[in-house]
Amino acid sequence: MTRKAVVLLSGGLDSMVSAAIAREQGFGVLALTVNYGQRHSVELEAAKRIAAELADQHVVLDLDLRKFGGSALTSDIAVPKAGVGEAIPVTYVPARNTVFLSLALAFAESAGARDLFIGVNALDYSGYPDCRPDFIDAFERLANIATKAGVEGERIAIHAPLQHMTKADIAREVDRLGLDAGLSHSCYDPAADGAHCGLCDACRLRSKGFAEAGLPDPTRYAERPE
């Protein structure tokens, strides 16, 4: 019987590669997308397109984090476009990956899955504290003491296959896996027609990855990243 894995699928490039790696490893993909009130809702449509290609099941869960705010993605704070900085950016959503992994864990346990995949990446962009290896390791320990499956000896594993990749490495994975990067959407502040803005951190890093990998970037940008 095919093992199942819950994959957090935002609709971005990293989550698409994570889902494809899960499938390559022989898992049946149960995709979970959280509609958390993010300003870039075009990402949700991208998640649906990706799930149609890679997933056996796709759940879109509504959870309005705009009621908390505290981020440029869940409030009216402006998205920075001056270039990638070193500090934790205002696009950080408080405890987002903790919340999302908790939801994925609940989905996995109810579906009989014992593996979770998340497309976090710490090397090129370490500004988000919930993308670090220490966080992933700590959540895996939590999962194994906080669930019926875990305490009964059915080990739960959290997979972060992109954790130590550069953005160029991820672009190369897109190519190796035969994925259509154009299905994905990474921009924090897309144009009205759905084009990537080209100036936010996510756009700059996405473009940089394809350029450094020497691969064509199929992304439609309103303004070409520097």
Describe the structure.
The chain is of the alpha/beta class and 226 residues long. It has one domain: 3-Layer(aba) Sandwich (Rossmann fold). The protein contains seven helices and five strands. The model has no long low-confidence stretch (mean pLDDT 93).
| Global geometry | globular
| Fraction of helical residues | 25-40%
Label the structural class: alpha/beta
Q: What does the largest sheet look like? A: 5 strands, parallel
What is the count of distinct domains? Answer: 1
CATH topology: Rossmann fold
Query: Numbering strands along the chain, what is their spatial order in the largest sheet?
Result: 3-2-1-4-5
- How many strands? 5
**Superfamily (CATH H level) name:** HUPs
Distance between the amino and carboxyl termini: 48 Å
Which percent band covers the strand fraction?
5-15%
Report the CATH C-level class.
Answer: Alpha Beta
Point out poorly predicted stretches. Answer: none
For the residues shown, what is the average pLDDT?
93
Instruction: Please compute the radius of gyration using only Cα atoms.
Output: 17 Å
**How are helices and strands ordered from N to C?**
EHEHEHEHHEHH
CATH architecture: 3-Layer(aba) Sandwich
Please count the helical segments: 7
